[in-house]
Amino acid sequence: MEINDPVPEIHPIEITKENVEAALKTDKGSEAHLVSFTVQECTKKGDNYATMVARVNVNYSLNETDHSVSYIVKYNPKSFKAFEKFAYIVFKKETMFYQHLVHDIQSQLQDIGQTPLRVAKCFYTSLEENREVIFLEDLRPRGFKMFDRKKGMDVAHTKLVLEELARLHAASYLLKAKIPDLTEKYPILNLDWINYADDARETMYETFTKQMDIVKDMLSKVGGYEVTENWLSRNKERVLEILDNQLERVPPYDVLCHGDCWNNNVLFRYNEKEIPVEVMLLDLQLVRQASFATDLTYLFHTSLEGHVRKTYLEAFLNIYYSAFLSVTEAGDTAMPFSRLELRQEYRNHLEFGLMLAMLVTIMIICEGNINKEDQKGFSDSVKDILDQLVATSPILRPRFLSIFDEMVENGIIE
Fold it and tell me: Is residue 200, in this structure, part of any structural domain at all?
């Protein structure tokens, strides 16, 4: 589609006149009257996997004056039969975040004189099963736009994301004084990949082990990665053990984590020189209580090229530490860990970055051409695409192979 081509309308059954009207009245007040609305796709092929995203353009009247507004709406993709239950949990988590948890975080930041967490406003949610929807503020009119997920983030973009993650983490740490355990107040936080349903462990085991087989086959074609191939063979059976260990809550490092923070799930606003000056966190659909390092290793190994991650790792960790410290100082609370402990906690969770990179980064390399109808179709299409891209993809080495080089250097793969 060319940039100037009109965006075609779509008609998802989840987006109804009733929920558009409800979102409008929450946003503009009870006197706002819905006149008409249209729905358009607002993302490119491959942008989304856990949810579908549309833009709803609304015409309305208020005080006898015509107006227009747009909303971003997330709705159930109803793909991957094996993940239908997980999709429902994803919507429940994000709904809980916008309806309740974000208010706890914002109140905590407000109490200590800090800037509110940078997330979109939410105007309406519905958890009707298989027709879930979440209406969010459209940040495009405020100048925010997506970063090209096929490009690794540079220092300026990464700095903004790290600072906002640190503020989320630190605010949740301070919140413990009022709410000692967020999972008791919000039990949905306890549900994750490996326990969201009775068959969750089996489903995730199959998902990760198939992906490890695909990666091992790809590395064999690339050549020179025998150590990694052997590691994948030996550790395939340990997938669930690895995830259990990496997601274990260990004070004082356990905080509220974004859970899905990579460069596809943030928006940036730029100045006139195209320098990023503000970030917005999106897709709080996998929020969890876990080590802050799970967010860091996830971000670094899905969103940065290897040379950037390696060159600036110490600087990035210092940026994160300073942002966390500024919140704890404002809250008259001692910093819960040192810079040295931060580095060690990051290193202790490198396996988490590795495991998630084998899922997420592969999708980036495959450029959105993945069959998402079912698990077998997904795996087969990933394998076929990678076979074609091994010799031609310009991002294969800097975005993916560099991860295995790093894991060998750090003794994670040996």
Answer: yes
Residue 255, strand partner residues: 290
Model confidence pLDDT, tens digit, residues 187-244: 999 999 999 999 999 999 999 999 999 999 999 999 999 999 999 999 999 999 999 9
Q: At which residue do the structure tokens 């793909």 appear?
A: 79
Instruction: Look at the chain and report how many structural domains it folds into.
Output: 1
Does residue 113 belong to any structural domain of this protein? no
Which residues have CB under 8 Å from 241's CB, separation 6+?
none
Two tokens, residue 284: 């709080």
Domain hosting 405: range is 143-409
Residue 49 belongs to a domain = no
Q: Model confidence over 331-348: pLDDT tens digits?
A: 999 999 999 999 999 999
Q: What is the CATH number of the domain that holds 179?
A: 3.90.1200
